[in-house]
Amino acid sequence: MEHIATRLSELYNSLLSDLDDIGIDVTGIGEQLVYDSRQPLLFNTGLFIVLFAMFMILYRMLRPWRAARMIFTIAFSIYFYYKASGECCLILIGVALSDYLLGLCMQKARTLTRRRITVMRTIVTLNVTVNICLLAYFKYFGLMIETINSFFTAHIDPINVILPAGISFFTFRSISYIVDIYRGQIQACRNPLDYLFFLTFFPPLLAGPVVRAKDMLPQIKSNPVPSRDMTSEGIYLIILGIIKKMVIADFISGNFVDRVFDNPALYSGFENLMASIGFTIQLYCDFAGYSDIAIGIALLLGYRFKENFNAPFKASNPTEFWHRWHISLSTWLRDYIYIPLGGNRCSRPRAYFNQFATMVIGGFWHGASWMYVIWGAAHGTLLVIHKMLRNAIPATSATETVVTESGEIEVVTVPSRFAPVTKCFNMVFTFLLIAAAFMLFRARSLDEVGMMWHQMIFDFHLSVAPEFISSYLTIVLAMAAGYIVHMLPTKITDPLKQGFMNAPVILQALLLAIALFIAIQVRSSDIVPFIYLQY
């Protein structure tokens, strides 16, 4: 037996040596497949492209066997999360098993004749408490210690807690699942594979969108097969996501925005203003790029998610902006925080408070920093002010009476001749307000924000604009592209999308390869993580 083990060891070492001689480093490949905090598995890495291509081949081969394909997808999703967050994948599995059992208990509680509501509310409270405690420990524990040390004379040594990637996203999905069962909107999963598949599904796992059980579980149970149109649309969205993230967002960030935000006092007010606008465009391209890739990958697998961004810079007011920006989060906050607080079914001052409180909570959700809370409060203030103005100054429009072809008399609204100008002004003004608020999102402290405003008010120097454009021409063009393409009307974008979907598969694959090639050429030496991975 010992002789056999020795012989196998010699053969193994000989094989490694032979592979090394022809340029294949097996040890290096093995190191790539284990968790490394410095090299997480992200959509914009070469390793993910290789692994996902292999995954797709096996996924298609397993199409006739639903259970086998589900188990394979769950295993890949857990491995994907392990590569992004190490042993924290056990937390994800624990949350999934806890939700599954609580869901069954909730479903059984519905059959009770006595104390049904009490038992169901207890289950909801337990689920919410567990998820909030997870967030409080992993995400906010350090902030709590820092705050205590700042406001009191005590000195508590900080504890190095590793933040599980995407914890804010999968805890929100967990809460909505149990709450929706409580509300009677969905039935609890009987098959544990169904729920494990839902919570661990890798495309939206790290940075959204926030997919709800009532939208995805019916698709899981139907064992979907991606159609030709779904595959084409998926590739189209992946190309858009690559361009937004790797070509525009990363280029703007590394070559201009980060430099100004790191040292605002070294730059003029004009450059600080351009950096604020640049970060707003960068954040949109980065996050919308991730959402596009996630939704595109899901389409390749046969699953359709709802739109997460709908041209938010076309918004004419702060309220419309939040109807277009990070839609999955804003609707989640509306349904599970704003409406339970009372929504607008109460006095006007209380409704304003509910709106403000919801945005503060949304800001706090983003990260363990008081800057996010202040950012949420700023957006809450903008929303309240807009609603107050809208209630105080009701919209008026001209009307005229017309006779229809059937002879009926109708009163129709006549748009003002100044309507296009007014809409354009409102869009630009709203964009500048949003950009000003996002300064709080990007800056590390209020001192940095104060310095940027000081430069913009007292040291603006518009005269540097020509030199800025010539020195940062590629940055200006990237920012303009990110904004102008975003503003294109659907009568232009829809035919482009349809034309791509009707193109031959070979041409679609070629365009995807070209997008990847361009992204590789313009990217920096290091992989730039998606911004929302830290949330």
Please describe what this structure looks like:
The chain is mostly helical. Helix content is 70%, strand content 2%. Strands 1-2 form a two-stranded antiparallel ribbon. α11 packs parallel to α22. The longest helix has 35 residues. The radius of gyration is 26 Å and the shape is globular. The termini are far apart.
| Span between termini | 53 Å
Low-confidence runs: 22-27
SS strand fraction: under 5%
Secondary structure: helix percent: 55-70%
Radius of gyration: 26 Å
What's the order of the H and E elements?
A: HHHHHHHHHHHHHHHHEEHHHHHH
Query: Mean of residue pLDDT?
Result: 83
Rough shape? globular
Strand arrangement within the widest β-sheet reads: 1-2
Features of this protein?
535 residues, mainly alpha, two-stranded antiparallel sheet
Topology:
Blueprint: H1 2-21, H2 26-32, H3 46-61, H4 66-85, H5 89-109, H6 116-138, H7 141-151, H8 167-182, H9 192-200, H10 213-221, H11 228-262, H12 269-300, H13 318-324, H14 327-341, H15 348-366, H16 370-392, E1 398-403, E2 409-414, H17 419-442, H18 446-458, H19 465-471, H20 473-487, H21 490-502, H22 505-522
Antiparallel strand pairs: 1-2
Helix pairs in contact: 4-9, 5-6, 5-8, 5-9, 6-8, 9-10, 11-12, 11-20, 11-21, 11-22, 12-17, 12-18, 14-15, 15-16, 16-17, 19-20
